[in-house]
């Protein structure tokens, strides 16, 4: 029920000024349905460039501190959907989900942190009691990758191994602090994965493998990393012996730098703020700090010693890192499923085609656009389900691909089958 004076077709976007959230808003604005977008942010003045792009009357803007419980509860009352785009989710998802449970309003996010994903899934019974859905991880990875996994698995009779991969190119200067903090968080420490049919803990960014994640290029080295897919996908594929998520950055030297900085944060040698400040400074054309470079260089040298990068590639990166050089974008997402078909071993793979896409052309573009498509699907299926859901629990691949088309992605640019 909508509250007094509230419109039941409102979609509340929290953290709308973020890089990925802005894209989600732009994509939602062109989708059918006549939804009124309420854009909120702690700094609403940052939303002015976005609102100028939107159709007149499509959106309104409000200031919101999501940690102000009373203001948050008043704002979302009676809404059709709350989309949380403010991270890091390990801090932001809990208060917003609790407000949605209290107000009985459907919730959707593009959370990519394991801890907050597990917490949200633990609220399944509360969501059922409130009569609402909680949709988690509705971005690129997790999100699109989960749907591609289901799509690939549908080609097979049995599922044995699942590998999910993400590869992020040079997106300077459009790199948000929340994204950088997340990278540091997942590049060191515990990495939950599914191995031999059970949940185990590895060390993040240690195990590696290569995948054909880019069309027309050699297989790319990716690192096993702490991401929600190995936590949620076993619920859909409990028979799988192994489910991993692997990721990587381009240029390759960034993997060593981020890993080393993450370890330094973990061991208390540098604060999260100092590490994020350093990476953000480099990403926006600054020179960084001497201490930051000492830590980063240590990790990049370790890469070379492990044959994960070449001396020449490292030298090129170091020569260009402090002069604002931006590399041509290379990035993509992949889901590869191993199993059997007609009694014989078989492999099915889906990947994105970011390098040729007009919409799916960078990490922010994929995440924001996928979030908009998930939101469209959730709004279209309003009342269809209650509880807490990962993407593979509810988003049928064919229906999700249609939703992507509704938010502006040409069908041939969505995913492709690798043969």
Description of the molecule:
The protein has 419 residues and is an alpha/beta fold. It folds into 2 domains: 10-140 and 361-417, Rossmann fold, CATH 3.40.50; 144-356, 2-Layer Sandwich (Dihydrodipicolinate Reductase, domain 2). Helices cover 40% and strands 21% of the residues. The chain is built from 16 helices and 16 strands. The protein has helices spanning 19-29, 48-53, 69-76, 89-103, 114-121, 124-130, 144-153, 177-186, 229-236, 253-266, 272-283, 290-305, 311-320, 363-380, 391-394, 397-406, and strands at 10-14, 36-41, 59-63, 81-84, 107-109, 133-135, 158-168, 190-195, 198-203, 208-211, 220-224, 242-249, 332-341, 344-351, 387-389, 416-417. Strands 7, 8, 9, 10, 11, 12, 13, 14 and 16 form a 9-stranded mixed beta sheet that branches. The protein has a 7-stranded parallel beta sheet with strand order 3-2-1-4-5-6-15, with helices on both faces. β1, α1 (19-29) and β2 form a beta-alpha-beta unit. α4 packs parallel to α5 and α10 crosses α12 (290-305). The longest helix has 18 residues, at 363-380. It is globular, with a radius of gyration of 21 Å.
